Amino acid sequence: MSAISHAPSTDSPGISPQDEPPPAHPRRNPLTSLRRANPLGASGGLLWLVIVLVPVYWVVVTSLRTREGFFDANPLSVPSHPTLENYRQVLDNDFTHYLLNSTLVTVGATLLTVGVSFLAAYAIVRGTSRALRWAFSVFLLGLAIPLQATIIPVYYLIAKAQMYDTLGAIVLPSAAFAIPLTVIILVNFLRDIPDELYESMRADGAGHWRMLWSLALPLSRPALITVVIYDALNVWNGFLFPLILTQSPDKRTLPLFVWSFQGEFTINVPAILAAVVLSTLPILVLYVLGRRQLIGGLTAGFGK
Question: Whole-angstrom Cα distance, residue 260 to residue 252?
Fold first, then answer.
């Protein structure tokens, strides 16, 4: 009886039961596993997701309604006759001009911030001078100064420099307030690069500039992408500096454009939300493209 039970099957010649692959386990639903592991956290995450997605859905759906349909239909229902007329109205109000202003301000402030911060971070990490340690303490102190408390001195300095009502007046203070946090992130990342790599390059006759561009810069790519996206998001959404330091309509950035658009079309809510959607798209594309690097850079070193 035992010999019969262990004999190879005639349906599968040459394959014993011991050689058969183990039955495949049914695929687990990640959401179900998460709920079992941490039900309170999963519930909180789902609640947070609903709180975030419902307003975004409402903004997009409402921007596709007609002006009359906004008051008649259910706010969360899909419009029966969606229209792009609101987007056309926004584009006809020099939207591309304000988009260009925001792009110039964001690119200028981000490049200035990252360039200065990377050089400062390298000097702090590789330098041995006491003055560099004091400089790092000054950068840390910059995190404790709120932007709103300095708006009058900033306005005075920009006016004295004869830069008022220019795009440069937005770039300089935006970069100044972004540098402290950027320096701290880059310093923490550069400290993780082994000293042996620097010593190897120094043994080959490399100086600081060569080690900076050939070693520190390539290895700091995740951190650089992180700070670029983070700083660009802050500058793109900045409202206070464009409001205080510019006056001419042609110097407005997109947040000011949406604000003025709201004043001009107060009752036309779908058109205002269409302006919000269009002003959000460029920075949303940047975030999607660099999302992996942003998360990787923010979590670098947490496992140590």
Answer: 9
How far is residue 179's CA from residue 168's CA, in Å, rounded to a whole number?
16
pLDDT attached to residue 105: 95
- Cα 90–Cα 254–Cα 105 angle in degrees, nearest 5: 140
- Is there a contact between 255 and 239 (Cβ–Cβ < 8 Å)? yes
**Number of C-beta neighbours around residue 86 at 10 A:** 26
Q: Give me the sign of the Cα torsion angle 257, 225, 245, 96.
A: negative
Cα separation, 171 vs 58, in Å, equals 33
Mean pLDDT by 10 residues, the chain (304 residues): 42 48 54 64 86 89 84 79 87 88 94 94 88 84 84 92 92 93 90 87 86 88 86 90 90 86 69 87 80 65 47
Question: What pLDDT is attached to residue 2?
Answer: 41
Non-local CB neighbours of 249 within 8 Å, separated by 6+ positions: 260
Q: Residue 270 to residues 59, 69, 82, 99, 101: CA-CA distances in angstroms? A: 8, 9, 11, 20, 24
Using the structure block, give the residue that is written with the tokens 């793109």: 236
Residue 104 tokens read as 């110039």
Type of residue numbered 180? P
